[in-house]
């Protein structure tokens, strides 16, 4: 299929409002705005409604629904989508007035520490946010969709992708600059004005009012919260004293996270912080690695114990910044300390030659998930058997590895103990310091002779789940199942989505000719999730890696569109064959093998393996989309499929991430079976 074969564009019959931007720049701006608004909503709602720190794709699913509905709404009305800024102006104050902290006692969900719940109950606030996200995103999606009939199919898709890349680039730049939400709100207000600017003065005033509410509310939050906005959290802190000892309490996304206190006081109050040093038979501390260094207390303790050189690894730059500025001991100003802003597992995989007397995983609880991955936390890859083997490989002959945290459930302590036993080949030292909250320290020497245990660990019970691995890194999920709370929530989302599609788009038979495009959307989202989680393991769960992967996916899609527009590519059956071959290749090349490659080679091979099926899948989509009779309906069906794919992501909790390739392959085969007969020979 070449560009000459694209459907002849027809102007959109919008007689009420003549846009002042021509079609192409309007499409780029609207697409950039759509993706920027989606990312901003995910990021900001999660910082105030703590449930969303653990269900980040809840807003993502609402966004996909809204974007799909926006495309399906094209042609059914000529009114401008002024409902979008109005609903957003209602949502922002509601969230600010009724923030929520989460009750994290539910076993089977991916967290464990207990906090009381404040604010509206989950059954009330989560449906409000899901519905609002869908309505808000439906507006810019409708504006994007109205541009599609005015251009050739693939040309419109091309400018849509360029706009999406612009949107993700802008949000990434603001994350790098630690811009507060008021900046995001100002950009959103400007975008609404550019895309919806009406002719009459009163209409302009009516449009400006919601924008002023959005910017004003976010401005008040920025000025009153005293927050630092890292790429992961809204970080708030306060200074206090206890018995004359200076303290700094740090909360992230409304949850108490850590406390910066002098090393001497910390050791007096909570003796478990000294246990990793007591369990070593050598007592050497020439080289120490601390993962989860945070605001610096664990680093300060290591220095007080006599560490000569400390590598302090922390994924969040703002936590390091707070520690460098305000920690009473000023550990990060000590010349013995070298800081590294990166993911702990990535640091271990990249620095293959460095060896340590002590490696310490210091309370590495991120309290949030990787954006774009349904169940992957920032620290998930730290607690797998392969991660502990990587730590073992970085120990000196008489070195020790230790971790401590509050684990709440007995089986969590035993699971981590058995994981360390599998990695090191002998039982670790397990010190349960406090039965309340299961405060525990787990330590293992490179050999049994290099560790000194107070008592022998009894070992894991028969009820203890097996160690987690890189393919299923779900430490806090006891059974190989999808927790009931997820099943109920996703079921309700699908029911609401079906009703919304019927109400907005009319009878389902309108989308029946595009059932294969719907399935392409389902499978592609699973493929994207596999790549996000795979690159997080290979290169780190940092926001930079996440942004690069999403940007890379969009570049691969754009490349597929350009190739399809400019060259005669093979028929759809051949391209489906290339796609399935790419999935087989991705299945045959395990991440464990890639981790053993030098970093530059690993990057090249990982990109080829990951993006070959993505490229082929989008050539398939581009060829099929170019021949579609109704471009906006076809695109909307594909986007709704992506929303269903977002629900199917949770299958990884049962089958693991690698098996998502099989699920995606089966869905692609179903899409091929539903391919119209005339499309098979195009």
UniProtKB/TrEMBL annotation:
Residue intervals passing through the bilayer: 27-46, 52-75, 82-102, 122-144, 156-176, 182-198, 205-229, 485-505, 517-537, 543-561, 573-589, 601-621, 633-651, 657-675
Q: Which SUPFAM superfamilies match?
A: S-adenosyl-L-methionine-dependent methyltransferases (SSF53335)
What are the residue boundaries of the PABS domain, all occurrences included?
Answer: 308-464
One GO BP on record is:
methylation
Question: GO molecular function, one example?
Answer: methyltransferase activity
Give the UniProt keywords, A-Z: Membrane, Methyltransferase, Polyamine biosynthesis, Transferase, Transmembrane, Transmembrane helix
Record PROSITE patterns: PABS_2
Name the domain of life this protein comes from.
Bacteria
Spell out the Gene3D superfamilies in the cross-references.
Vaccinia Virus protein VP39 (3.40.50.150)
UniProt lists the family membership as follows:
Belongs to the spermidine/spermine synthase family.
Q: What is this protein called?
A: SAM-dependent methyltransferase
Species source reads Streptosporangium lutulentum
